[in-house]
Structures are given as structure tokens and as C-alpha cells.
Amino acid sequence: MKRRGLALAKGYLVMGAVLAFLFLVTACSSGQNEHHQMSLQPTVPVEVEVLTEPETLKAGTPVQIMAKVTQGEELVDDADRVEFELWRDGQSDDEHQHMNGEHQGEGIYAITYTFEEAGTYYVIPHTDARGMHIMPTATLNVGE
Question: Measured between alpha carbons, how far is 65 from 54 in angstroms, rounded to an integer?
């Protein structure tokens, strides 16, 4: 009886070892396939720089607010969306203004805006480009 129990235990041990081996082989081989399918190229981030024209801002004077979109050394002219969010320091979220930027060429997306009062303003160009979402915040000082 003891021999039969011992043989049965050895059988379970061998079957467990075989299953563990198959599991490892399957896991390693599927990992290799995924590895070969994945790109090993590093992703260059999309960057957004806020510019204004003119550089010195005055209340009551129209200004062009621009987002210059680049990826590495390349100008990005195929952004899916550039939406400018503007607000004056101290305003609540429901007072923020949203305007869609128009593509100007050479990686530039722009809006024209007139600040009614002097003060500190913030702008976020919400940018969706090449599978990335970028939203830097820029501070604009508007004088009298």
C-alpha cells in the first residue's frame, strides 16, 4: 500500500514539474514575441512653447497668442487639437475662456485676444498631437 502511495506521489510530482516547465516555456516564448513586436525606438516628446505678438502686452490692444508645437527638431503641423484656456489671476474655473487655435503653419497655432484689464493672466494651450496631450501653463503680464 505504501508503494502505491509513493508511486502516486511521484506521479503527481513529475506531472507538476512538467506543467511548471510548460508554463515557463509558454511565458518566455510569448514574452519574446511581444518583445519583437514592440518598437524599441525612444518616443520623442511633443513640446509646446507659448509666444505672444507683440511681446509686451497692453490692456485694450489685440494680441496674438501662439503655441509653437515641436517634436524634437521637427515642427508639428498635424496637431489634432490646440485649445487655448485663458483666465485672469483670481478668477474661478467657470470664468475661464476657451478658444480653438487656428493652424498658421510652421508648427504655430494661434488665437487673437484682447485683454480688457491690466493684470496677471494665465494661458494653457491644451494640445493633442501625435498621441500625446501636452498642457503647459504660461503666465502673461498685461500692462496699462
Answer: 9
Torsion, CA 91, CA 96, CA 140, CA 117, rounded to 10: -60
Alpha carbon of residue 140 to chain centroid: 23
Amino acid at 81: R
102 forms beta bridges with 110
pTM: 0.71
Which DSSP symbol is given to 137? -
- Per-residue CA distances from 51 to 63, 66, 80, 92 (Å): 10, 5, 20, 24
pLDDT in tens, 45-101: 999 999 999 999 999 999 999 999 999 999 999 999 999 999 999 999 999 999 999
Q: String of b and e for 31-53 (b: at least 16 CB within 10 Å)? A: eeeeeeeeeeeeeeebbbebebe
Residue 56: in which H helix or E strand, if any? none
